[in-house]
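pinning this so it doesn't scroll away 📌
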Amino acid sequence: MRAGLVSLLEGLGHSVVAAVGDGDALVAAAREHRPDLVITDVRMPPDFKDEGLRAAVRLRASDSRAAVLVLSQYAATAYAAELLGPTGQAGVGYLLKDRVGEVADFADVVARVAAGDTVIDPDVVRQLLSRQRTANPLDRLTPREREVLAQMAEGRSNPQVARVLGISDAAVAKHIGNIFMKLDLPAEDGHRRVLAVLKYLRS
């Protein structure tokens, strides 16, 4: 998988500065090379549990500039929520490995996360939507506001949300404003979009 990713990324015009096999080596290489993007599997040696995820979380906690894309075999919502926990200014992504084969979409995700966007796999978002929610701030949202928030969780910008849902940019902005208000996210907080997605993922 690692060799295949290197070949794919280089074929897309990217330079791969390191390809490593465990979480400690990943953190060390990222700190040495300061790449535009770190891509890791959730599971890495020695135990093949969540070492890659832990490395990504550790890296983001120590360096707010570190953009990280985590690949997973399964749509584990807890992993996505934990990855988003240490919010920084750089991008973060959580993607199922199956998506890598969809080269054009994968290339788009790589570019977006490296540019600072937050991208969550659509299957993870669908799992979150299917959950039963009780005594939850998200219960305050209208069905349309939930749709807008789901699109935000997938990392889409306001114009992209407007196109997907077939509504105007102004309507999207109004819905997002309502979401922030209903989730009690203060206007002075510069990370309200990320905080809204976090509330969504953790609900």
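📌 and the second one:
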Amino acid sequence: MAALTRAGVLTNYIEVAQHLGLNPHEMLRRVGLSKALIEQPEQRIPTVAAVTLLEESARESGCQTFGLRMAESRQLADFGAISLMLMHQPTLRDAIRTTVQYRHMLNEALAVYLEEAGRTVIIREEVVTDVPMPTRQAIELAIGIMYRLSGALLGANWRPHSVNFTHEAPADLHLHRRLFRCNLEFGAEFNGIVCAAADLDKPNPLADSALARFAQHYVDSLAVTDARSVVLDVRKAIYLLLPMGRASIEQIAEALGMNVRSLQRRLAEHDETFSNLINSVRRELVMRYMENESYSMSQIADLLGYGMPSSFTRWFIAQFGVAPVQWRASITAPEP
């Protein structure tokens, strides 16, 4: 079953598209969407269509920051039915956990993970689609929205250390600097936000526990069909945990709240295996890393879960029929 996304993710798409000289109705038509559809924010739309729309709009307009332009004006209310619940969580940590818990009502393709590193926390984010495809604009939109959510809850107390992207920097960083107001890291090993752990636990001055309970009862009463696929959930978990060296079947099962046998059984119901899924994610991620010349082969091996570069090399040859060094040389060689 294809992953679905709440249409509200495309809030203000038409405004941004028109500002950049695009015909939004034509762009929507190309990916099988319509103005009427995205004007119903609780409507579910195919994730692939939404991600393709952002990438095509960025390409057609020549604007490398299309997704970020959409994120810049987002408000808490744009989260739809769970907005009130998010607004009244006692801390940012609670708000992020709520976002993860109710992700099926927002964006099935969004993967979020809090990595604790002493006094520092990394809010890792990935957009994982059913099929491999460029997701630069969707990633920038997601991280921009997370940044603005955090700022809405903490106000002046929100001072992250850095915002990190695995893709390369755009030619013009003006919008990134205006929106994020912190250190920017491009070509990084992960997509996400680095902040002090203490920031996540600072009291939310807007919090009202009674309203939070009321909002949760309302959200839980909604008749939302949980059409999530365990296959997509496993893929998202692998995307987040593989670069951290924590993508064993035991760790993935734990992250999804089940035991290994239950995970294997549920994957088998979809004619899938864990080994096939981790291999397919490695194939997708390796292209991201190989195309970024700042990554050494040993770094890439480590990010893909290989303790030895030689093991990575053997896997790469088996998958692509050529050694990784040769593959990289072929894509960086000058045109004749």
